Fold:
Amino acid sequence: MLSVKKLAASAFVATATASAVVLGGGGVAQADVPVWQANCHVYNIFNTGGMANCELPTWHQVKLTCVAWPVPFVYWKYGPAQYGQNQSWASCDSLNAMVNIEVIQA
Structure:
């Protein structure tokens, strides 16, 4: 049978461990920088799609401006939000339909 002291000690260790995990328990978080200062790059893929990534820690996503034919109208496609050097990809709905590509803050 467990003694009261052993139960209390176990509860204390479990609580201390849980609070260390909740409070972060190690390392200092780096602050995100604005996307215009994060040295981001965009890449055009055959005027149909594109991708973006950033060198510094920031949330970003690629934004494409596409055109649809035969009646021309403009629409936007957004890639998934990504962090830092992860790549955000998107593509227009038809070949050679992309007219602009940019990276935006997510």
About this structure: Confidence is low (pLDDT under 50) at residues 11-28. The CA atoms of residues 32 and 58 lie 5 Å apart. The radius of gyration is 24 Å.
